[in-house]
Fold these 3 entries.
Entry 1:
Amino acid sequence: MNHLSLNQIRIYLSDELSLEDRLDIETHIAECLHCARRVHALYSARINFEELWDSWTLSSHAAEFQTLRISETIKNTSIRDSLRSRVKHWSWNIQNGVEIALGLTVDASKGLAEIIQDGLDFLGPEIDAGSFTPQPSPVTIQGDVDSSHLIAVETGGPPWTRVTTDPALRRVVVQLQGSQKPWPLIALVARDGSWAEVDAFRDVEGESFLLAEFDDIPSGDFLLIIEKNPTSNYRNL
Amino acid sequence: MPANHLTKNEESILVDTAIAGDETAWTRLYETFILPLRGFLRGRISHIEDVEDLAHECFIRAHGGLMEGRYDRQYRFYTFLRGIAHHLILDYWRNRSNDCMRFDESVTQQENQQREARILSRPLERLELLHLVLSCSAKPHQIIMFCFVKLLEWRPREIVDERSDEQLSALTEEFLHTYFDALSSFVSKNTFFEDVCSPLAKTMVVPAVHVYTEREYQTIGSITESPVGSLKLDVFFGGNPAANISDWCDRVKTRTRKMLRTANIMVNSDDS
């Protein structure tokens, strides 16, 4: 059977088919992920029509796709066992679970890095994306391929956060002024969903800040996000 | 006849034999209907593990129903199964929302599952909704204006001031490309332009006389033999263009909602 058309799905969902047609279509849905998703989408749209309609703009639609990609990428990243349930929990709460977010572009071959603070609204209205300095964004530095050039931005505090990117060494270091345990999760996620690394901050002996480091990152566009309210999230697991 | 299409007589014999305790007959019924039943559930519940659980629960209840004489012979066995599955789905959602209210510990887990389902399905729901809007029976100029006002967030007054003189095909192109650009890293070009947008794109080349009624024909005058796409937006305006645009947007919503809920309204395309 070919994929179901929009009309076929509509008619099917209206329950106006013969038993034989219904059996054929439902057998197909059981075996075809593409059609199962479409049927489920239209079934949900029937039930939640007003809410879906009222909140519908191109921006909201694109934001939902971005959130989906980040959630899936984080969820599927290999991670040590002790963090697995926390990360899974966080992955489905991304939209309201981010304290700080930052866009990063890294081109290791050119020693180029860029930090972008715009276009992160989809992660929620209250994320701390605008308070990094230096402003205004984007902040760009172009360095020599043979030498290491750092680009650093930081928020005021307390607690302050500092992000240092070294494009030539393909390294991102994040420092966060110390907070209560559990230390927050932090993720560096490729915007296209092709790569991600998730970890929790760790403390550094003799220092007042927590540290997270990402090494050997590929070139590309990234999103750096730091978990919001790890204490309450952790308690609920 | 496909494997799962038993005649009423065959089915009746299997049911009688199953009631008499013949496990082979029950197995045959199970094997015949488990796949479509899964399909029924998969179209309504996104969690594949929950679908499997509900499918098996459905057969357990159906077996109990047969043994206790609760199967009404005037209905086909699959209709009986689907009825049980329908109630199980209602219980499924009811239990999830009750759990959310009752147990603090499970709130996060339940909420997570709901968030997960929502995050997974919401963008696809909107894509299907866009497909419906672009296929709905509202007039092309109404659909295009809806797309600009609702989806691209233009104000009707801005459209009147800045876009009145433009042809519908140019406005359509602009909308489709703007929408696709925003989603291009998530949706394939083929899916978007050939599946979702083709109904509206195809309408642009149809002679206007085939799309607009005689009453509307008067407002667009002598150009009705021209393609719809060549019509300029301002030929559709009445005394209050901004109010016209708002009315058109409402009409698109009404048509889309009706199309989603009623089978006998056909969409404007032979999509596949």
Entry 2:
Amino acid sequence: MSDHGDLVAKKAAKLAMMANQMAQFFGSYPHDQAIAGISGHIVKFWTPKMHALLIAQAERGDPALHPLVVDAMLMPKHVESPTKNHATGDLAHADAG
Amino acid sequence: MPLIQELDTGTPIRVSDETVTLTIDGNQVTVPKGTSVMAASVTMGTKIPRLCATDSLEAYGSCRLCLVEIEGRRGTPASCTTPADNGMVVHTQNERLAKLRKGVMELYISDHPLDCLTCSANGDCELQDTAGQVGLRDVRYGYDGEKHKQAPIDDSNPYFSFESSKCIVCSRCVRACEEVQGTFALTIEGRGFQSKVSPSGTDFFGSECVSCGACVQACPTATLNEKMVIQMGHPEHAVVTTCAYCGVGCSFKAEMQGDKVVRMVPSKDGKANDGHSCVKGRFAWNYATHKDRMTKPMIRAAITDEWREVSWDEAIAYAASEFKRLQAKYGTDSIGGITSSRCTNEETYLVQKLIRGAFGNNNVDTCARVCHSPTGYGLGATLGTSAGTQEFASVEEADVILVIGANPTDGHPVFASRMKKRLREGARLIVADPRKIDLVKSPHIRADYHLPLKPGSNVALINAFAHVIVTEGLVNEAYVRERCDLNDFEAWARFVADVRHSPEQQEGVIGAPAADVRAAARLYATGGKGAIFYGLGVTEHSQGSTMVMGMANIAMATGNIGGIGMGVNPLRGQNNVQGSCDMGSFPHEYPGYRHVSDDATREMYEALWGVSLQRTPGLRIPNMLDEAVEGTFKGLYVQGEDIAQSDPDTHHVTSGLRAMECVVVQDIFLNETAKYAHVFLPGSSFLEKDGTFTNAERRISRVRKVMAPLGIYADWEATMLLSNALGLPMTYTHPSQIMDEIAATTPSFKGVSYETLERLGSVQWPCNDDAPEGTPTMHVGHFVIGKGKFMITEFQATEERAGPRFPLILTTGRILSQYNVGAQTRRTSNSMWHEEDVLEIHPFDAELRGVKDGDLVALESRSGDIAIKARISERMQPGVVYTTFHHAKTGANVITTDYTDWATNCPEYKVTAVQVRKTNRMSDWQARFFEEDVALTRVAPKMEAAE
């Protein structure tokens, strides 16, 4: 594998690992909430570039991705994240005080 | 400001709902019940002569100088030990009392060297003052009797000397060590005339003394005196400022001669420290003027070039042109910056403003990424605010104290003293830590339960606590019903009630006896007010955020949030780590924890700063390094952080830094990160600037300039220069104006100003219209989030596991005398206590490997290997080894891995699978370190001016 290819593979593996960790946490919640949680977390904390790379991984069926991550990247969300204060819809009220 | 003379009431003023009124020398005075006659007298303006009394200590009644007459009572009682009472009529001055006091004073002076003019305490000696106060004119006993004037001087401590010939055996030092510090290192040895203060049969340096300075402060003579005072003489003015070490944020009086610091004395008015200090803040401040300070800007084209000293103008112009070049070539998002938790709120605010406004992206992060970012996430998700719930003084009303993953006696020593005082009063203690830390068993302290859990099992432990609380009916149902979201509670309760979370089923995972875990959970839930204190042993795990939520869960379930004596309390690492988070240092949020996607907030800053801002999160530090290695991230502005030493997986960090084309480091020393830098801007120490720090209890305190910046500019001024060069105008002339901007744009800081801080001394945010004098306790009545939100916290074992190749688990931490990467403390005499990092290893593991105490061993993980000396210690449990990361040459983070917390990317410093074996050579990394320590730090000799 070329150096560039190696870097791309490492990046994909790292993003998968980070997202899969989220899946392990949100996996305790019902499916809809779990994927909303993962999706909301990534939108809130990841750069759009990292997010887009993960969506691309999900779209091409990267087997390293947890099923919840794939669903979170590809399925529409109808419910709120369990961490509602950390979801995108409620951010205006996430003030420290 | 002249020297600050603090009022000393002799004995503590009591806190009581009841008052008593008495008459002293014809004047009526009303004081809280329990207050002594001596203290009552001081409050009305009369200082009764005294030597063994000072108000940081309980009354002792030994010096017999504070005698008074009380009508209707026989004799002449000591005013320090006599409580004031209603109707009492006291006389403090008459002929009889004067004669008695003079007689006592004669005895003291008959055995005291009369070298006042050359004595280091001349002019600052309570013995001298008291002799004057009682009118001593003669010593009838002469000076020829048996005396102690030839007693040797103990100079072993690097910061103070013990000249026992000047000791009057008032026991103030002994009592300070016991009552204030809680170490019990000093004692009175011998009886009668042979009585003398002793650091328990050895010298001070060899004793249990932790060099906190409480004894020095309490000493009324020159017996215990700072060596700086002995060397320099007395200070002539003082400035109140805030310590720049740990997150306790102690208030100090910087006592000065001109622009030279003579000593730092803890301020009695400091609400974080209540007049106490530790060895770092009290004594280890000389790094500020160390010869290694870099005071000239420098630039170089490549990191292998010599540094070239240049003017500020040239350095700033070069940095700005490089950043512009990189953005033109690689894109807006190709550069970023790191704010400092050691710098002030105002400086941190400016750096994030520069990055968002001048760089035009949100690639800003801070060192909280690698320490307490899970605290922000976990407490935010459950309670609604990213900070601890209490003030430090709250611990004085705690009934049960649960310490998890923290070692306060080393990491937060001044708070630890306050905690130990409460424990000596009878509060119960649970310690959950892989190591047998000092709190487990120390003089007059014994944990009710020490749960020696395996590194990485925190969440299993907290779930086991929750299981006991739920299944044994220990939930505070009324509290939960009123304060919390019931649906979330019920889901959580069902989750933790599952028998798989029981202490018995989790015993193999946790490693602590199930019976102890069960008993400890019962104690926390039923023992009265329960207070949780935690540190990086909680956060620096792959489940750091989950664990923070787990602690908030059990605190809510037992009703332990929203009142004094309880709460969930992070012990923050660096002096301004709370403030750096508050000031918008994270790539996803503006000051006050408002997300960058929040249109109203973003538009407000856009209007104020006159720029367009990105609405999506930027890169975190690990992401920046990843993208640097990938070739898309090219430039970094680092203010006051040393990621090459402090961040995990050193190989990866330095690879990222090497891949960048412009790294700008702003620091007081040429730190490890500067080896990979192209521009160096001289930083300013906390003594050289104005500003504010925010400590772990959300307390905002003033930092005050006591000397001019050695490098000409304070850090906030340097950031302004860079910002202006990049095209974002900054025109502040004083940090107070920056704070005014912060207050005007951040709801939780709305009421904060330098005027507020002058008036109140310090203030805890939120400080706004609802709480104009701040908020000592959060979540009173209701949670910031509304209804408290229980989160489900499934335990997931970390991927980092011991195995045949790496059979031991390494966990890292810090020790008392050193601080973080050691850049400050290594340049002080504190290194006498810790001149190198060592690897603590259990005797069993050592014997298995043929390792003896002091042997050089190779410490290897999948990330790398280093050589380090072994210290055999039964503080460790078998299978777990421990080291610190205070010395760059050790390279502790060569070993740590890239595993991180799932929510925040906080590194998993606390769990690394390792192997240990004997060696006789330094590692390849260490050999390269020593080479690069020279090769990458060369400074070109200055050119002589032409004739």
Entry 3:
Amino acid sequence: MSQPLVEVQGLCKHYPVLGHRGDHLRALLDVLRGRPLQRQVRVLEDIGFSVLPGQSLAIIGENGAGKSTLLKLVTGVLTPSAGTVRTHGSIGALLELGAGFHPEFSGRDNVRMAAALHGLDARALAEKLPEIEAFADIGDYMDEPVKHYSTGMVVRLGFAVIAAIRPALLITDEVLAVGDESFQKKCIRWIDDYLAGGGTLLLVSHSMYHVQKLCRQAIWLQHGRIAAQGDVFDVSQRYLAWHETRQRTTEGSPVQSSPYSDYAIDSVDSNGVEPGQSLQLDMGQTLVHDVVLRAPADATPVLMCGWVRADGTAVYGTSSEIEGVRGQAMGEGRYRYRLCFEDLPLLPGAYQLRTHLLDGEGLRMFDTRVTSVLVRGASRELGVTRLPHRWIGPSEA
Amino acid sequence: MIQGAHRAVFRELLRREFTERYQGSVLGVAWHFILPLVQLAVLSWVFGELLKARSSSSDLPYPAFLALGLWTWGLLANAIGRGLGALTENGALIGKVAVPQDIFIDTRIAASAMIDLSAFVLVLMALAVFGYLPQVSGMPAMLAGLLVMGLFGYALARLLAILQVFLRDIGAAIGHLLTLWFFLTPVIYARDQLPDYVGRWLAWNPAAAPVEAVRAGFSGLPVDWAALAISAVTSVILLWASRWLFARARPHLEDFL
């Protein structure tokens, strides 16, 4: 069982560029001469991974990162430009919805074709057909041409075929995104059961919920290269963090200037990390925020601290003025504040801890520092923070 | 060419080929027999009655002479006509399942050959009704002629179907070229009716020998086996070329579909 089901090494894929009139002819001449195409774009570069039997691997990334191309290469629909893909055992693939159904033919006809493509003979298909019909649950539409189907029905039928065939390796590309709630649940239940029974899964999805629910490993593709690879929570959180940061930078970052030299943030230290750097924490760890502020001789500066998600959503904020705390005077108008966040309940993800300096009345903001905080963890809870809660057992009133 | 695992796919595609072409049409497969019959009637009338073409060197009436040529030619023309788009029109399926792509060309040509050959049998039966029976001694020549024409059409259709993936110009031009080719093939006339220098040039047309072999075989006339052999060798060379091209193009086919 130690032999990998999928072994990918140094995989590259280049697509031809066919924008101009002469490109087709030039490409044909290159093909005839058996040399690489001259005008091409690199879609995947140097991809390497392996999937052992029983593993579940998610491939995540932005649109156009090369996820679908990678799946097509593993399935064997595309031929690599360089590198190798080795697969063992039967592969069931649902690529870009629909598994290659012909729109003019009825669902039943298409099921027959799909079965043939998966090496099922007529008798085996006859046995499986009731199961397929039950799973797809599209009723009389089974005998209608597929072109009359809704997108969801196409996916239902496609998934039903795969479910009946139970391949050694299941490859799905954004299949769950289309079905309705109950069908999604059905699919997830089936995949859960399939994985528990030793099945192997290769999944492309933009839903981190599905990714984290179904997969243990993940690969983050970015511009055709592997940006991160490993444990699903690690990779997906880094991916989300990157997303949020990118979103925020395109929306414009907060001003960080200090026009009044009398007021200034002297130093900020969060568990030993300075602003501008990235602090990594495990969920539930304790964070000590150590800030030194400077103010004119006659004023006491106010420290305000705020947590925001990397996309700018406010999480929590408080200030020394709200809580009636006075900083520790260090002479020369300098004040030290130490703020401890014990057992930080933030859910895994990317956050910013913003440190603001306000005047004595807490009205004007003079200076701001931002520390990026990445909270790590394997929680699948939703939202921003873990609210205190407990489950009430059946024996309690 | 087709491995065991793909036999079921081949069968399924073949079944599809028959149903797909006639889905929603009332007459179905009958179209495949009606259209050539209309063509036969028009050509017989124009060339036989108006232009007084004759089937020289045999006692066959002109419509029978024409029918034998027309259905032999059809083997080539339909193989190309159907096979040409086999890859480009199946792009959606080819992009989602991993089977050798030439299976799509092969099934289309197989279906079209099956229809054409059964139509040819119908032609023979119709001729028999009117009292024109094929000569038993000419049977090998007829079979050889049909076989060579089928092989020639198969090889050419495969080549063109692959080239069509890269150059869609082929699809645009092929209809007109086939019409021209039809007139350069001795289907509506016999080569010995032409001036000698033209007739000699037409011998270079690989489609000529099979048509002539089928007709000569039917009437029990001497068959130009050497010419038929040259057509056969040409077909084999083209078939080899199509396989070479497929091997070269296969890694790129999907990228261009």
